[in-house]
Amino acid sequence: MTALLTVDITDYERIGYAEGLSAGLALALAGIDIETAAPGWFVAVPVDLAGDAPTMGHSMARDEDIAILRLPAAGSRPTALVGLRLAAVRIGVTRQLLDQAIEHLTGRTGGGEPLIRKQLNQGTIADILSSLEMLRRYLETTVLSPTSDAIVDIHDQLTTLDWEITKLFGAAGFMADHPVRALYVAGLVANTWVCKGELR
Hints:
Elements: H1 9-19, H2 21-28, H3 34-37, E1 42-46, H4 47-50, E2 55-56, H5 59-63, E3 66-70, H6 80-105, E4 109-110, E5 113-114, H7 115-122, H8 124-144, H9 148-168, H10 181-193
Antiparallel strand pairs: 1-3, 2-3, 4-5
């Protein structure tokens, strides 16, 4: 199978970082027939693409301008193109929330020590940055010869990293109105588009 991304992954990552999950998902779905490409009964799309189609209520997704569509028929196989593009978008969104977490920690103290220094000393932020870079390289390699196992693995690792970033915000990271909800919704979006199975 040849490389599937029609735009360099850096473009998807840049949109995810600068414009957010909904804009990144819109780019990831560009040129995709949603009903035939979806691997299941439900699929996440930007609100603007939902039109009058029936949607499932999900307040956090709606707050990120994402709608969960119920499709008239379930798809049968995952689409590599969307999974790859979405992974790049998620890397951008994850980087943006990591930047916000670093800003959140700067100037705050815990036990008499600046929290940012504490996280740096523990290596948490460095570990996340290193993992993100490895995932970016993993994605670049996967684009050249995609498999559903690799695409699922990349998204699973992103979800794990997103949880580590959520914890950096402390209690605030568990509030539904906090910007970190974008990471939770990104995982939800991936769950509707990415699954194991023979690729289309």
